[in-house]
Structure formats: C-alpha cells, structure tokens
Amino acid sequence: MRSLTRALCGALLALAAALMLAACAAGSHSSQRSDAVSPTEGTSQPSSAANQPSATASTSGLAPASANTVLPPPAAPAAAAVTTASAPPAGGLPLEEPTGSASQVITVVAQSTSSTTGVLQAWDKAPDGSWLKVGGAVLAHLGSSGLSAHDREGLSATPIGSFTLTQAFGADANPGTALPYHVTTPADWWISQYGGPYTSMYNTMQTCSGTCPFTQGNPNEHLHSETPYYNYAVVINYNTSPVVQGAGSAFFLHVNPDGKPTAGCVSIAQSNLISIMQWLNPAAQPRILIGIG
Hints:
Layout: H1 2-34, E1 104-110, E2 117-125, E3 131-141, E4 147-148, E5 158-159, E6 161-164, E7 168-170, E8 181-183, E9 188-190, E10 205-207, E11 221-222, E12 233-235, E13 252-255, E14 266-268, H2 270-279, E15 287-292
Parallel strand pairs: 1-15, 4-5, 7-8, 13-14
Antiparallel strand pairs: 1-2, 2-3, 6-15, 7-12, 9-10, 9-11, 12-13
C-alpha cells in the first residue's frame, strides 16, 4: 500500500512539473511576438493586438495606436510653387494695351525702353474672345533711341501704345493687301513740318510737284525715293486723330534691309512684311500694340 501511494505521488509530481514547463514555454513565445516589428509598420494598415507598434514607436511624438485605431496616411509633400507672373494668360496677348474692336492685332514687344529690337507677332481673335497666333514670331527693329510713351519731333523713339492700321503705301505695286494701298510717285511726301502754315498738313501724305506749300526736303520725307525701306509700308496711326503739333510724325511698319535701328518706325524683313500685309483685313479693324514685356 505504501509503495502504491509512493508511486501515485511520484506520478502526480511528474505531471505537475510537466504542466509548469509547458506554461513557461508559452509565456516565452508570447513575449517574443510582442517585441517583433510589424511588417506593415509605417503604412496606414489597421492595428491589431498582434501587430501593434512597440513602445519605441512613440518617439515620433504620436501616441501608440489602440487595437481599433486606423493610422492616417502620411501627409503628401507640398507641391512646388510655379511662378507664372511673367507669362501671359492662356489665349491672351503679351501686352496690356487696348484692342478696341480689332479682331486682328500685331504686337511688338521689347525688353526695355532702351531696346532697339523687339519681337513682332500677329494674332487673330477667336470666337470665344481669346487670341490665336498667326505665323511665327519675327525680329523687329525699332528706333535708335528705343521706345517712348511721349514721342516728339526729333526723338528717334518708337511710340508705345495701341494704334490702328488703316492704310498702306509703297514704291512697288500692291503686294496683295486689302488695305487701301497707294503706289508712291516722285510727287509724294510725308510732312513733318508743323505749326503755322503746315498745321493742316502735319503728319499726313501730301502730293505736290513744282512749287509746294512745304519744304521739299528735310524734315519732310520723300516717300518714293526712300527705297528699299518704303518698297512697302503700313501707316501706324500714331498722332493722327487728333493731330498734336510737334508730337511726332511719319511712323510706319516698313521694310528693314540692313538690320539697323530706325528713326522711330518698326521695320522687319520684306518677306515677313508682305505676308502680314496680305493677312491684314480692314474689316477686322487691325491694330498694332507696341510696348515693354
């Protein structure tokens, strides 16, 4: 009986030891899982009891997530600012000059008032009111004194502003423009004398041979002899309505044969000028805008 009791006690002791060892092994395995780093850490995955971040994750300044917390996605980096102040608006003109009722516009843009060259571009007005480029940009030669918003006689500066284009002339035959076109003769002059007896003639074309009521020479221009500059020309209607005596005269869009600055006109290559003259349409009330951009 004693031997049976001893045997039974030994068996119970062995069973208790086995149960204690199993419990210790289970505790050690659970401890290893709680210290493991979740493979989804740093993403916006839902947390669970098995993949909560360890206590070291709180060093980022965020509280550890609870079992039911969904971490928000990281904030997207701020987009880089895009500077567009120097660019014209889509469908817009590069100069803020009035266009009136024009549906055809020529812009001449210089970098500064001291520039003697600029960029000339033709534009058509679209039905929605935007402006569409016609052809490519063209190099334009300007006054030897640059540009001015306050032109006057004797100042070789190209006037700044918005001006209508209503007539053309040239020593050569009409190249195909719809503008009223005058083929010049030796009797044609543009008058730059002003005041007194010249008041009514100032800044207009006058035709006279023999004895004339104006000087047949400087400061007036003998249009027919000024070739190849005036092979073709479009009158820029600066100081024409009203005419202010002495405020400047004889401004044209004309041929540039030599790449030199002008006395205040806008000049371009003859082939480009012919193309523009063929495009111009009086019904479109065309204008030329000249300025800094």
